[in-house]
Specification:
The longest helix is centred in the N-terminal third of the chain and has 39 residues, at 31-69. α2 packs parallel to α7, α12 (254-271) runs antiparallel to α18 (374-410) and α13 packs antiparallel against α14. It is globular and about 65 Å long. By secondary structure, the protein is mostly helical. The chain is built from 18 helices and no strands.
């Protein structure tokens, strides 16, 4: 019997964690650990590089073709409204959940910033005001499309592909040859994604081996309460909030969704990159969850750049954690500022360099917290990133299913 790809990937996850624990037990100086981590680095980087290789053509063709195939103006309008409405609602729910959990459990209370003085002293925070951030974000939307394609600037590629798709709709049959070319480009790119997925079990095993083996367990223990609150609230959003939203609109049961989405969720957990996972996310949405290509081709790539539930939750929770460390009480208005800043930061993060650190600094600055305090979070960021990326990707797939259901409900027979 041939083992399914889903089973192979789950075996890769288990093997990666076990081998990583073995290397951690042997220590970083052991010859086996050094050799194993070197090989894991080669395989893991190869897997991510292959996904990134097909990322740009996949994003460009999927959005352009998706928009072009939404030929009815009313249907295109409904897709836009439904997509943006879901993204806003799910991100709002995530931030409220993160803020509520931190107010209840108060991670960081009783600790002192002085304990982390050396880490903060040696870290140079890259700062940016909210107005500068917004200006830079909008400036990054409209750039030379050839430069965006060459640089892998996903947000700018998405914007240009949207314009191209709309032009194809307005032009009708005059541009049929261009549309056919783009459709064939999308099909051949998806075929290459299928080939790359054969390496997925090994790539995921390699990435998780390095993650587990190189994690500083001592620091994790010191920040255990914050780590537990962030992971716990992220899982609540993933296992309760998003599935409830999905079931309320589509009547799709959570287990049916997770079976279809498993490949993308495991890949997101291992790679910690929504963009790198995008080829797998589109594959799952279209082939396993049966979302129409024109819906998935629009919602999923757009979501991978602007729909960041896990990131928004984490940045809001981190602001309250740092406030507790600093002994600062954030009132309702200040927490409201954190809420809106975290939402803007989560939407804009993919469009700027050093996105994660810059947006985190911006959230802290919005309520006068020390920007250097993010140095405390850097050693645990990689572990937490695995969970929040998985939720980001899950939100994109659930969004595509919800949008498809809403569009179907409003489209005349």
């Amino acid at each position: 019997m041939r083992v399914s790809l889903n089973t192979q990937m789950l075996l890769g996850v288990s093997a990666g964690i076990l081998v990583g624990l073995l290397f951690a037990e042997l220590g970083p100086d052991a010859a086996l650990t050094q050799s194993g981590l070197y090989v894991s680095g080669l395989i893991g980087n190869l897997f991510i590089d292959l996904l990134k290789m097909v990322l740009v053509p996949l994003v460009f063709t999927s959005i352009a073709v998706g928009i072009a195939n939404l030929r009815l103006h009313q249907q295109m309008h409904q897709v836009w409204l439904s997509t943006l409405g879901f993204f806003g609602l799910s991100t709002t729910a995530a931030i409220i959940l993160g803020l509520t959990a931190c107010n209840l459990f108060e991670p960081g209370r009783g600790l002192s910033l002085d304990v982390f003085h050396s880490a903060m002293h040696n870290f140079d925070a890259k700062q940016m005001t909210l107005t500068d951030f917004i200006a830079k974000f909008f400036h990054g939307l409209f750039v030379n499309p050839f430069a965006a394609l060459a640089d892998g600037n996903v947000l700018a590629i998405v914007v240009f592909a949207l314009f191209l798709g709309i032009a194809l709709v307005k032009g009708g049959d005059r541009y049929r040859n261009i549309l056919v070319l783009l459709q064939e480009g999308l099909e051949i790119t998806l075929r290459m994604v299928g080939w790359i997925m054969h390496l997925a079990p090994f790539g995921i095993m390699a990435l998780l081996t390095r993650l587990v083996a190189t994690q500083d367990m001592g620091l994790l223990a010191g920040l255990a309460k914050f780590v537990a609150v962030v992971i716990g609230t992220t899982l609540v959003h993933s296992l309760v909030v998003l599935p409830l939203m999905l079931y309320a609109v589509t009547r799709i049961k959570p287990m049916a969704f997770f079976r279809g989405a498993r490949e993308a969720l495991v890949t997101a957990f291992a790679t910690s990159s929504s963009s790198a996972t995008l080829p797998v996310t589109l594959r799952c949405a279209e082939q396993h969850l049966h979302v129409k290509p024109e819906i998935a081709g629009f919602v999923v790539p757009l979501g991978a750049t602007v729909n960041m539930d896990g990131t928004a939750l984490y940045e809001a929770a981190a602001a309250l954690f740092v406030a507790n460390l600093a002994g600062v009480e954030l009132n309702f208005v200040q927490q409201l500022i954190v809420f809106f800043t975290a939402m803007i930061a989560a939407i804009g993060a993919p469009g700027i360099p050093s996105a994660g650190m810059v947006t985190m600094v911006m959230v802290l600055q919005s309520v006068g917290l020390p920007a250097e305090a993010i140095a405390i979070l850097l050693p645990i960021d990689r572990l937490l990133d695995t969970f929040r990326t998985m939720v980001n990707v899950q939100g994109d797939m659930i969004g595509s299913l919800i949008v498809q259901r809403l569009v179907r409900a409003t489209t005349p027979a």
